[in-house]
Design a protein that fits this description.
With 370 residues, the protein is α/β, with parallel strands linked by helices. It has helices spanning 41-49, 56-70, 80-92, 99-113, 118-156, 183-191, 208-220, 232-237, 263-272, 293-296, 305-308, 357-363; strands at 2-3, 6-7, 11-14, 20-24, 35-38, 163-167, 196-201, 224-227, 243-246, 250-251, 257-260, 277-280, 309-314, 317-322, 335-338, 345-348, 351-353. The chain has 2 domains: 2-135, translation initiation factor eif-2b, domain 1 (Four Helix Bundle (Hemerythrin (Met), subunit A), Up-down Bundle), CATH 1.20.120; 144-367, 3-Layer(aba) Sandwich (Rossmann fold). A 7-stranded mixed sheet has the order 8-7-6-9-12-16-17, sandwiched between helices. It has a 3-stranded antiparallel sheet with strand order 3-4-5. The chain has a 3-stranded antiparallel sheet with strand order 10-11-15, covered by helices on one side.
Length: 370
């Protein structure tokens, strides 16, 4: 994607005597656009847990780069395989819900173990990390290609009027490497001349819709309007939403999906108003070991300060401001689970399927034995 006319991706690995991981500091957006350098495994852990980087594909890619970086910190103890195992567990603990994270560190650990010498392991880790980054980018592009006909079909009946799409949180290129998941079909449709308008949920408490989705859509020239989180149902009742498309942090084999808190309510409203509800996700977001999302997916609970404080720009300085009584208790569930019965379809890099086991497995036959 382009920022002020220049192409950027959300993560880069700079080679050298010791590699440096460069990422966009998303905590500063939309007020400042800055790259941040991650120099240690601890830096990578903090970037994920503190949401300098966020979004399931990007979290996984960042952790993969962190596994590569870890080999340059190895000092001979403990045993190298034990060290890699411990590093993988450490990075996987940075956030619990997005399955891309554990998928990436486990894949990296497996590749690294194939090396005999430390030099071998470093080369294998470098190649594996770059493969994961490249694969996530490719997956997002393919999601866009498979999702585009859905928008195109809706547009054919609109007679030139805008296709109104509602999305939640940020599943754009900022959450991925490039293109995004939920936004990939949107960008492709816009680039092909389809009249698109996006309703952007603010997505409390961290306002990823307001700060990130609206910003990146505008950078690409896609018309969009920020709305309060609870506005979507009203818009659907009045025929102002043609489809909903959201991202996903973890999907089950039966088609349940976990996404940013509030997604479930959008799905309920969409079902009641007969609005198509699509989920865009790469295969790395499937948890092939879990069938029941409500009982099987761990829901991250984050600090109450994200509820009680809000971040904004004041006199050119980014500040946090208290918006609740200091003694008020606050519960901060970061995700919820949308049951498969509310989902029109899953848009993946292998095609579109129904949110049910047989349809999913037909797209991913290599997973049937799991």
């Amino acid at each position: 994607m382009k920022i002020n006319g220049k192409h950027f991706e959300t993560i880069y690995i700079k080679s050298g005597r010791k590699p440096v991981i460069q990422v966009i500091d998303q905590t500063l957006l939309p007020f400042r656009f800055e790259m941040k350098e991650l120099l240690t495994v601890k830096d990578v852990f903090s970037a994920i847990s503190e949401m300098t980087v966020r979004g399931a594909p990007l979290i996984g890619a960042t952790a993969a780069a962190g596994m590569y970086l870890s080999l340059f910190e190895y000092n001979g103890t403990p045993d190298i395989d034990k060290y890699i195992h411990n590093t993988a567990q450490y990075l996987a603990s940075s956030r619990p819900t997005a399955v891309n994270l554990s998928y990436s560190v486990n894949a990296m650990a497996g590749e690294i173990r194939k090396g005999v010498t430390l030099t071998d392991k470093i080369k294998l880790a470098r190649d594996a990390a770059r493969h994961i980054i490249d694969k996530e980018r490719e997956n997002c592009l393919r999601i866009g290609e498979f999702g585009f006909p859905v928008i195109e079909k809706i547009a054919s009946g609109k007679k030139g009027k805008p296709v109104n799409i509602l999305t939640h949180c940020n599943a754009g290129w900022l959450a991925c490497i490039d293109y995004g998941t939920a936004t990939a079909p949107i960008y492709l449709a816009h680039d092909k001349g389809i009249n698109i308008h996006v309703w952007v949920d603010e997505t409390r408490p961290r306002n990823q819709g307001t700060k990130l989705t609206a910003w990146e859509l505008q950078q690409h020239g896609v018309p969009c309007t920020i709305i309060a989180d609870n506005t979507g149902g009203h818009l659907m009742q009045h025929g102002m939403v043609d489809m909903v498309i959201v991202g996903c942090d973890r999907a089950t084999t039966n088609g349940d999906i976990a996404n940013k808190i509030g997604t479930y309510l959008k799905a309920l409203a969409a079902k009641d108003n007969k609005v198509p509800f699509y989920v865009a996700l790469p295969s790395s977001s499937f948890d092939w070991t879990v069938a029941d999302g409500i009982n099987g997916i761990i829901i991250e609970e984050r600090g109450s300060e994200e509820i009680k404080y809000i971040q904004g720009l004041y006199n050119e300085e980014i500040i946090s401001m208290l918006i609740a009584d200091i003694d008020s208790k606050a519960a901060n569930y970061a995700f919820d689970v949308t049951p498969a019965r509310l989902i029109t379809g899953l848009i993946t890099e292998n095609g579109i399927c129904k949110a049910e086991k047989n349809s999913i497995m037909n797209l991913f036959p290599d997973k049937k034995s799991i």
